[in-house]
C-alpha cells in the first residue's frame, strides 16, 4: 500500500513549494496530495486516509485547528500524523495545537530539508 502525504494551505505558492520539496519522495512510492482549505482537507482526509498531513493553521472555510480537532477527536483517525504549519511561533498557538491533537508544529518559513527528513522519519522510509 502506498504512503500518502497531504499538503493543506490556502496559499498556492506554499502548496507548490511543499510539493516540490516532497517530490523526491515520489520515487519512494509516496503520493503527494494537496488541498486549499480546511473543508477540502477534511474530505480528502476521510477519503484518501493520508499517513501524514502538513496542515496550515490560518485558512478560509475551516482553520487548521478545527480540521485537526475533527480528525483526531471526532473521527478518531489515529493513524494520521498531523504537522501544523504556521507563520506565528506564538506559545498560545502551540498550546492550542497540542489541545486539538497536532503531532508536531512547524513555523514558516520552513527548512525544506527538515520537511523531507521529518516526512521520511514519520513514513518510516
Q: Can I get a quick summary?
A:
It is built from 5 helices and 5 strands; from the N terminus they run E-H-E-H-E-H-E-H-E-H. With 125 residues, the chain is α/β, with parallel strands linked by helices. The protein has one domain: Response regulator (Rossmann fold, 3-Layer(aba) Sandwich).
Protein architecture, described:
By secondary structure, the chain is of the alpha/beta class. The protein has a single domain, classed as Response regulator (Rossmann fold, 3-Layer(aba) Sandwich). It is 43% helix and 20% strand. The chain has helices at 12-22, 38-48, 64-74, 91-99, 112-123; strands at residues 4-8, 31-35, 52-56, 81-86, 104-107. It has a 5-stranded parallel β-sheet, sandwiched between helices. Helix 2 (38-48) runs parallel beside helix 3 (64-74). The model has no long low-confidence stretch (mean pLDDT 92).
Question: Secondary-structure map with pairings?
Answer:
Layout: E1 4-8, H1 12-22, E2 31-35, H2 38-48, E3 52-56, H3 64-74, E4 81-86, H4 91-99, E5 104-107, H5 112-123
Parallel strand pairs: 1-2, 1-3, 3-4, 4-5
Query: Could you please say which CATH topology applies here?
Result: Rossmann fold
Strand pairing plus helix content: what structural class?
A: alpha/beta
The string of secondary-structure elements, in order, is: EHEHEHEHEH
* Percentage of β-strand residues: 15-25%
**How far from one another are the termini?**
13 Å
Radius of gyration: 13 Å
What is the count of distinct domains?
Answer: 1
Q: What's the average pLDDT? A: 92
How do the strands line up in the largest sheet?
Answer: 2-1-3-4-5
Amino acid at each position: 500500500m502506498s504512503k500518502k502525504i497531504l499538503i493543506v494551505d490556502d496559499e498556492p505558492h506554499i502548496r507548490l513549494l511543499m510539493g516540490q520539496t516532497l517530490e523526491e519522495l515520489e520515487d519512494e512510492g509516496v503520493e503527494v496530495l494537496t488541498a486549499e482549505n480546511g473543508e477540502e482537507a477534511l474530505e480528502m482526509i476521510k477519503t484518501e486516509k493520508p499517513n501524514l498531513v502538513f496542515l496550515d493553521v490560518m485558512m478560509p472555510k475551516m482553520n487548521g485547528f478545527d480540521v485537526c480537532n475533527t480528525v483526531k477527536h471526532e473521527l478518531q483517525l489515529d493513524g494520521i500524523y498531523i504537522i501544523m504549519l504556521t507563520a506565528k511561533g506564538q506559545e498560545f498557538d502551540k498550546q492550542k495545537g497540542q489541545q486539538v491533537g497536532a503531532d508536531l508544529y512547524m513555523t514558516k518559513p520552513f527548512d525544506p530539508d527538515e520537511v523531507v527528513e521529518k516526512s521520511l522519519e514519520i513514513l518510516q522510509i
